[in-house]
């Protein structure tokens, strides 16, 4: 009996192997048969009574071709067809039937869709950075990660939350929510490169700027901290712009081809090099650089930061101000609650930019211990600026 059982088991295994090996051949043969085989169908035609032989039945034969249904295709081919669909369509066809729901939630399908669309997203923040979920070994599926990180899905969720919040706040007295306009510090190498016209257009170009100037205020800390009062929509903010050097020095450095030097920084005493510690591109250890005394006091009294970088693909200037960014964010006077908005700017619409996720990776934004968002924008028409400012104000108001 045991020998018979073993023989039957081996026979079944051989049959399964042969069936799997010959499946492509059998499928091609079936497909050929479905497409090319014509079956003759008999059709009985009743002649008109005007004819003399109307009592005789006429039998004709006509050809009919069998239809090829989507469910008759192999699963791999079905998934390949689904790979041409966008996220919105995939989410919609999941409601068609249980089988299509199973196909539309395929892990590899959503992984490919996530990495493809990620290169097209216009903004990424601390809650929509996919690598955060992957590095923490999250139990979320690729589809769930996509829906959490996708900008369009975030806008829909934000609209729902805003509707509830507006209804709730409308019933409460406005005096409970009155506060001083937030102070925001804007800095970064993007203020001194091809995108240097950002501040000028933001303050004075009324045709495209989402903000209007509502006054000015003086500096408080060693002459640092003066700025302008802005109105953006229904909100106000005090904007403080910090340049690495004055205009004359910036122009002289550009003419003579000198490296960028920032007066916002003050070199700290050198520290012994730790094992595995790497220097940045210009040979300076980021951990031995601190902001100046006046800037350190200013950081203690602001509500948010805006960091501007030139993200044109040709310039390769994204990392040119890493020391400033690290020093400002690691400053002991800077609080983790202070959000950071990175404006990934290009000068004109024709300038080829780096992707938003590429800039996020280069700046290592996921290592920050504060809310952050990277926004793509164009200085020529300020496209993308309002979305970034709106996010920043929501974080501090």
Provide a quick synopsis of the model:
The chain is α/β, with parallel strands linked by helices. It has 15 helices and 12 strands.
List keywords for this structure.
397 residues, Monooxygenase, Rossmann fold, eight-stranded mixed β-sheet, two-stranded antiparallel ribbon, 39% helix, elongated, F-box-like_dom_sf, GTP-binding, F-box domain-containing protein
Strand order of the largest sheet: 3-12-11-10-4-7-6-5
Helical coverage, percent range: 25-40%
Give me the strand/helix succession. HHEEHHHHEHHHEHEEEHEEHEHEHEH
What is the CATH architecture assignment of the domain at 183-254 and 289-396? 3-Layer(aba) Sandwich
Classify the secondary structure makeup into a structural class.
alpha/beta
CATH topology of the domain at 183-254 and 289-396: Rossmann fold
Uncertain spans, ≥5 residues at pLDDT below 50? Answer: 276-284
Strand content: 15-25%
Topology (SSEs and partners):
Layout: H1 2-21, H2 23-36, E1 38-45, E2 58-65, H3 75-82, H4 87-93, H5 98-104, H6 107-118, E3 123-125, H7 130-135, H8 142-149, H9 151-170, E4 183-187, H10 198-204, E5 211-217, E6 227-232, E7 235-241, H11 247-256, E8 265-267, E9 289-291, H12 293-299, E10 304-310, H13 322-329, E11 340-346, H14 356-363, E12 372-378, H15 385-396
Helix pairs in contact: 6-8
